[in-house]
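User: These chains co-purify. Model them together.
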Amino acid sequence: DVKVTQSSRYLVKRTGEKVFLECVQDMDHENMFWYRQDPGLGLRLIYFSYDVKMKEKGDIPEGYSVSREKKERFSLILESASTNQTSMYLCASRNSPGAGSTNEKLFFGSGTQLSVL
Amino acid sequence: AQTVTQSQPEMSVQEAETVTLSCTYDTSESDYYLFWYKQPPSRQMILVIRQEAYKQQNATENRFSVNFQKAAKSFSLKISDSQLGDAAMYFCAYRGSGNTPLVFGKGTRLSVIA
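Assistant: Joint model of the two components:
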């Protein structure tokens, strides 16, 4: 089974700290995504990447950056954490069997609940 | 931009009964894909069902089925014979053609009453 691993399940940081959220997948997927989940707001896309060193902004990129130096690892960076970035962060990766293929699957990590105090 | 709307923040159903979760979406594309995901308290996202827009037949997976109305841009999920294990957050999601990310709705929290 594909595994998407997020380094921390729970994380507590202080405002102004630089925060790294790590995500690693073990199936050589090209596509990786970072979502943020808040009650009543669903999942919102922060950044995504289709290949090493490539990144695209999602719907809410402000205050975040990403890094993808290796195919298996996609890191989300909060340059200076703020209280409004307290949230659950979900990483996902997707295989690419061909557009529209029923074998295409999105795999999620277990999430990181980040609290910024 | 595509949007996905789930108008029911919370729903409840008696065990063994049937419940329908609503989802509408907005798109100008003709080729796209729709999904329902389940998120139990474990936080793990689980794919429930998938529908390709070009298919007229509604997708079915055991007790889960969809009512896909392309003209109305509606994609509801029906859960039959509800079980306690169906209690979860349910997210409707849209993906356009090509290699694009999923767009999610705000979710519906489903409670199952024994």
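Chain A is about 0% helix and 50% strand.
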